[in-house]
Amino acid sequence: MSLRLAVLASGRGSNFAALLQACAAGHIHGSVVGVFSDKPQSGAMALAAEAGVHAWAMKPNTFETRDAFDAAMFDAIDAVQPDLIVCAGYMRIIGAAAIARFPNRMINIHPSLLPRHPGLHTHQRALEAGDAEHGASVHVVIPELDAGPVLAQVRVPVHDGDTAETLAARVLAREHPLLLASVAAVAGGALRLDADAIRWQGAPLREPLRLGDDDRLHAAP
Ligand code: GRF
Predict the structure, then answer these.
(1) Does this chain's domain 1-102 share its CATH topology with 109-221?
(2) Which helix (H) or strand (E) holds 181?
(3) What is the domain partition of the chain in residue ranges?
(4) What are the mean pLDDT values of the chain's consecutive 10-residue runs (221 residues total)?
C-alpha cells in the first residue's frame, strides 16, 4: 500500500520539499496528497503550486474561533483521506478536538532533542543552556505541545562560537533525513503507530530511534 501523506506547513517549506522529492525518487513508498497551511503566502504554498500538489490555505483570523479554523482545515485534510499527517514546520498550535480526529496518525518534526526545549526559539535556548548537543525529534502529536511520544531523533554537536543561525543550519541539514527516514519507515511498515504502542520492527519502542550517519534509523544503543 502506498502511504497517503498530508503535510502541514507554515513557512519556507524545506521539509515539505524534501518529502516531495523523496516520494518522487521512490525513497518513500507514498505520495503527498495534500498540503495545508495557516499561511497562504508561505513558501510552502508557492512550492505546492509549482509542484501541482493539492493545497488548502486560509488565514486563521478570517475565522471566529481557533476551533473553527481547525475544524475547517481538518475537514479539508479528512477529504484527502491521509494515512499519515506530517506537521513539517507548521507553527500554529492545533486544538485537542482536531488532534482527536486522527489519533496515532499525526507526527511533527521539532528542532530540539525533546523533552529538551519544547516550543519556540529552540536553537537560542540550547545555546543559552550551554548544551553540548542539540538536534531534532520526530514525535506523535498529542494535545500537549511537543510532548507526544518521540519516534526518532538526530543529534548534532554544538560548536564554540555557534549562533542560533549556524546551529539552526546544522540541525536543518539533519532534520530532513530524519523526517524522510521516519516517514519511509512508517510507509514500509518497520515503524508502526499502533493505538497501544509504537512498534519498531515488531517490538514496542522503549527509546527514540536514532538517525545514524548513514541516514538510517537505528535502535538506541
Ligand atoms: C524547521 O526547523 C522545523 O523543525 C521547525 O520549523 C522549521 C521549518 O522549516 N518547526 P521548513 O519550513 O520546513 O523549511
Answers:
(1) yes
(2) helix 164-188
(3) 1-102, 109-221
(4) 96 97 98 98 98 98 97 98 98 96 97 98 98 98 96 98 98 98 98 96 97 96 82
**Atom number of ligand 1 nearest to Cα 109:** 4
- Which superfamily is assigned to 1-102 in CATH? Formyl transferase, N-terminal domain (3.40.50.170)
Q: Which superfamily does CATH assign the domain made up of 109-221 to?
A: Formyl transferase, N-terminal domain (3.40.50.170)
d(CA 88, ligand 1 centre) in Å: 6
The pLDDT tens digits of the residues spanning 75-123 come to 999 999 999 999 999 999 999 999 999 999 999 999 999 999 999 999 9
Query: For a substitution probing ligand 1, which of 114, 175, 180, 183 has the most ligand atoms within 8 Å of its CB?
Result: 175
Torsion sign over Cα 70, 101, 135, 122: positive
Count the neighbouring beta carbons within 10 Å of the beta carbon of residue 161: 6
148 — phi, psi (to 5°)?
Answer: -75, 165
